Amino acid sequence: MKILITESKDFSQKALEMLTVNNEVVISDIKDKENLIESIKDVEVIFIRLRFNFDQAVLQHAKKLKYILSPTTGLDHIDIEYFNKCGGQVVSLKGETEFLNNIPSTAEHTWALLLTLFKKIPSSFEHVKKGYWNRDLFKGNNLRNKKIGILGLGRVGKQVAKFADVFGMEIQYFDIKNVESEYKKVNSPEELFLNSDVVTIHIPYDSENHNYVDEKLLSRCKKGIILINTSRGGIWDEDYVAKLIHQNRIGGLATDVLKDELNGEKRISNPLVKLASGNDNIIITPHIAGATFESMNLTEEFIVSKFINLVSSEK
User: Fold this and answer.
1) 10-24 as b/e: b if 16+ CB within 10 A
2) 56 and 30 inside one domain
3) Residues of 60-79 as b/e, b for ≥16 C-beta within 10 angstroms?
4) Given strand 225-229, what is the order of strands in its sheet?
5) Local structure of residue 50 (DSSP, 8 states)
6) Which domain holds residue 298?
7) Among candidates 106, 72, 119, which has minimal Cα distance to 283?
8) What integer pLDDT is reported at residue 218 of this predicted model?
9) 159 shares its domain with 87
């Protein structure tokens, strides 16, 4: 089969060697949509990351495409319904809990964002770079004894809970599933937002969870709450979050994701991006929570193995 790797920078050498056995592998680092459309016209398999949205407008040009390999749990960058109708299959990390339990990068990034907000690191560093040294401007807060609310106690949520435990935080969570846990489960997401000093979001994004964190939930926020999102931008109502920041209801916000983050025009006009330039208590990173060398190589190798096993079973 002809396989295209669309983002080749730092791609796992082991995964590449596995793919090249009995296949023609094209290694690329595609930068724009036009080049992407041209490149996928005659390939049967593509290995993708998160640079592009593989929607119908793109996929309709890939007449020979049979498989999309994506080393991600979230799949909102792929029009799965359309691709399945075309007879294609997506190979991803979704549901691969046993393997993913050994991937710590998203939880680590969540914790980095939390500490950065509490300790006011970006603004104090900018202060020093300008030649100043006034510690009184940047008094932070301890994490110990603060209440952290975890929305979704799945793989990442459980890892975050372990970090919180080490830091002496009071841990509570809400999950629609029955989860075995030593931590306190609250009765509703509303209760979680009402009684937490920090809420960190770890639920998967799909059509049912679009704007799950909506005005109803956010209006219950404890004044001065810290909000962290390393899930997907579509999980919460960004406009209402921005409104609460304007009203000084939110003490700090950190997100690794944005709604329509791959659309340059929409990204620039995003209400949170606009607010970030004038607010030291907002941190936005470009969807890098899972982007560590170790985690990316491990997930690439896992996806390639999964793909090879799938193709072998179909012969």
Assistant:
1) ebbeebbebbeeeee
2) yes
3) eebeebbbbbbbbbbbbbbb
4) 184-185, 170-174, 147-151, 198-201, 225-229, 250-255, 282-284
5) S
6) 2-95+292-314
7) 119
8) 95
9) no
Q: Are residues 6 and 117 in the same domain?
A: no
Half-sphere exposure for 47 (CA within 13 Å, toward CB): 31
Q: What is the DSSP string of 90-121?
A: EE-STT-HHHHTT--HHHHHHHHHHHHHHHTH
- DSSP character string of 275-304: HHTT-TTEEE--S-TT--HHHHHHHHHHHH
Closest CA to 109 of 171, 202, 197, 196: 202
Sign of CA dihedral 280, 286, 292, 295: positive
pLDDT value for 314: 84
Q: Which residue's entry shows tokens 């330039």? A: 277
Cα separation, 229 vs 231, whole angstroms:
6
> Where do we find the tokens 């809420």?
199
Q: Residue 233 contacts by C-beta under 8 Å, 6 or more apart in sequence?
A: 255, 257, 258, 259, 260, 261
At 207 the pLDDT is 87
Tokens of 207: 């059509």
Residue of 240, 231, 72, 219 lying closest to 152 (CA atoms): 231
Residues of the chain with pLDDT under 70: none
Instruction: Tell me phi and psi for residue 100, to 5 degrees.
Output: -70, -20
Does one domain contain both 265 and 210?
Answer: yes
